[in-house]
Amino acid sequence: MWISRAVEPRLEHSAKTRPVVVLTGARQTGKTSTFLRLFPDYAFVSLDLPVEAETAEKDPGIFLQRHPPPVIIDEVQYAPGLFRHLKVAVDAHRRRYGQFLLTGSQKFTLMKNVSESLAGRADIVELETLSLAEIRAALPQTALETAIVRGGFPELYANPDIDAVGFYNSYLATYLERDVRSLTNVGSLRDFERFLRACALRSANLLNKADLARDVGVAPSTANHWLSMLEASGQAVLLEPWFSNRTKSIVKSPKLYLADTGLLCALLNIRSEEALRLSPAVGAVWETFVFAQLRDRERLAGRAGSLFFWRDRTREVDFLVDAGGRLELYEAKWTELPDTGDTVNLEFVRNVVGKSRLAGAAVICRAANGFPLANGIRALPVTELA
Fold first, then answer.
1. Is the pTM here over 0.90, yes or no?
2. How would you class 193 by CB atoms within 10 Å of its CB: exposed for 0-12, middle for 13-18, buried for 19 or more?
3. Which residues span the domain enclosing 18?
4. Closest CA to 350 of 363, 361, 365
5. Cβ contacts of residue 292 below 8 Å, gap of 6+?
6. Does some domain include residue 244?
7. The domain spanning residue 61 has which CATH number?
8. pLDDT in tens, 344-355
9. I want to staple 287 with a disulfide (CB 3.0 to 4.6 A). Which of 141, 160, 204, 330 is the partner?
């Protein structure tokens, strides 16, 4: 079963207006499948194959002769030497659009090469795991708790018979062996896996790199490097605090989130909906899930860099959306029936930033339908975020 992605119209438009389209994201998010479905007439080559990667890196001219455009090049980060030759090929036919469709699972490495060689020639699109809206568009009866625990990897919904526990065990093993080893020299994969699990325990919390390093038993520089690896491979996301001149005492540390709640639940040994409801980490898992839905909403709206959190020394609001100076405030609460007590921080921050700047404030919860709480603040079902 094919599950349509909300980003598909943008990819089709980009292929008609730009010479190169770059689709990045974590492994198994559906990058290659999406390109193959949207562009069935394109040639395809994967640099996951060592012989193809070696040719593309050491003899890119011959590689491009063997694989002329229009072509999909999968996992292109394995051949950084190819990018300069792609630039030459693109510039030779600058008005020929959709020449090269590139995918990559290591964002930082990929983006460095794109920015150096293909600046102004490529449209860059990020593909994360399935949003709740995408899951329910394909499988309307999917329960909210099921979507949280099962996560958003498309394969788990295209084939519902797949055992999620086995899937994530295999995913972790593959990720550790392929991406971690290719990104850096990790002395002990066991230490890195412990680091990943420590990050899972801290999802939806303020990042303290020194505490994280100490708890895992590695040097702070190592923890910082490993955290960058998690970001580069699309496994973790950092959310920055929002600043304004009127909020002098706001904190500067970001918050840490795992990108997908399925992987988060696997790392926390939450293997069923019942286990989720009973888990002491349910609030953090819910906030992580809401963050993923907000990222999807803002990305589809074309508002890059619009999502933050607000925090001073005593209070925090989970999410702040800055859309051209107009602010939206959101608290994530696991409850089905939030009350006025859940709006205290929202009201406080509304007064700090000024009511005239506020476009809305809501408690994002598991309610079946939205309803007003107090002073213009609403209870908002997560399904209505889109």
1. yes
2. middle
3. 8-126
4. 361
5. 128, 129, 131, 152, 257, 259, 260, 261
6. no
7. 3.40.50.300
8. 999 999 999 888
9. 204
